[in-house]
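Complex 234.
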Amino acid sequence: MAERILLVEDEEKMARMVELELIHEGYEVTKAYDGVAGLAHAESGGFDLILLDIMLPGLNGMEVLRRLRRITDVPVILLTARDATVDKVSGLDTGADDYITKPFVIEELLARIRAGLRKGSAADQRRDGKKENLVLTAAGGNLVLDVDRHEVKVKNEPVELTLREFSLLQYLLENKGRVLSRDALLEHVWGYDYVGETNAVDVYVRFLRSKVDERFDMKLIHTVRGIGYQIREE
Ligand code: CA
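Predicted structure with calcium ion bound:
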């Protein structure tokens, strides 16, 4: 199966050029022209590597990277402007795997992509090698969440979740039986310095309920009024 690369770059001509080269090399490419769209694609998951421009309209690349690192360790290569040393340092601090300075020759980019992909699959193998395949269950074993495989099944049917929905469900399951406040969920699933909408937890609980509870006619996620949410066995 072709390896999937997400390319977040606002200069469309440049993005198109890189896309054509990557397709030529046999990669599957998804493009996004701004940070918000890039983050949304990245959060939906399924990429083997992300090429991320730093100077982007809307949400800049550093902010995209910071948010991304809370939910995934997919290899990220930053595309930086020439001589932006500060970007490179803070990019690597924020969790980028590598960077390449624009303008670059395509061969160098391809080499860095290959290295990034190797690193990513080595990390996957290390995780697999540990054999502590973490599987969480609920609803009397009807719901199974496999952390390493990033899979959720209900009554043996696969359920498609975004990375954020998956993280939320995982955290709720890890704390099955406990009531979790919205603040605790924000802190663990979104990060303690989250500055977005404070109703994000409620919104994502709604998404989960429609994909799990409503679809399979079960009651998994309980609202505890004035406090937060809880998964408990019926
Ligand atoms: Ca740019």
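The mean pLDDT is 87.
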